[in-house]
Amino acid sequence: MRIQAFTKTYNKKCVLRVPQLTLQNDKIYAVIGANGSGKSTFARIVSGILQDDEKKKVCEGAKAVGYMPQQSYGFRMSVWKNILLGGGDMARAKELMRRLEIETLAGQRADRLSGGETARMALARILMKRYDLVFLDEPAAAMDVSSAALMEDLIREYQRENKCTIMLLTHSMKQARRLADYVLFFHQGRLLEYGEAEQVLFHPKNEETRRFLEFYGT
Ligand SMILES: Nc1ncnc2c1ncn2[C@@H]1O[C@H](COP(=O)(O)OP(=O)(O)O)[C@@H](O)[C@H]1O
Ligand SMILES: [Mg+2]
Asked: 11, 76, 172, 183: least CB-packed within 10 angstroms?
């Protein structure tokens, strides 16, 4: 899979500049960086829901690319219907609800769930489909520790079964350490450092990366 070099400009200000990148198939990437560093913009452009400055196709070599938004959303219908919104089979939906411990919520209205419940439902919704590349934009932000652990198991399993590439945008360095094969570090709209997880998280080359990791705790 390849990501073409691209930029994104808002109000004459370039908020993101990304060089050409080759992504390894069948790997988990953690995308890290402070608020406003460009993680979501990167994910949304690569997954095609937002256009870069040249309005080109940024991602090559991936047929299906998915994006789970940072703000997960429950439509005003049952949790069950929300998960099946994009199609897929009932057995899979049931299994995902069981794994994420939301089966008891199946019949409830999705717009009345708590933040953590909404996030689990949104994760089930995205994992209903098979993607070659899937972005999960801070999926655990509203989850408690035990839900986050269920989520991590499920992400690993989805990745293994589909042999796909997952890009996990996260604020948790612990989560990055547990899951990631590779890490991308964004700083002020630039991809400042990327490479094998071990290298970036434990032996960063860049001073800014080092400072970020010190602050967020490796
Ligand atoms: N629609 C928009 N209009 C103007 N600026 C935006 C818009 N979306 C994002 N930005 C800016 O782009 C930068 C990167 O944002 P974002 O990708 O959401 O960062 P992150 O996900 O790392 O927190 C921020 O400075 C943000 O304010
Ligand atoms: Mg974001």
From this structure: 11
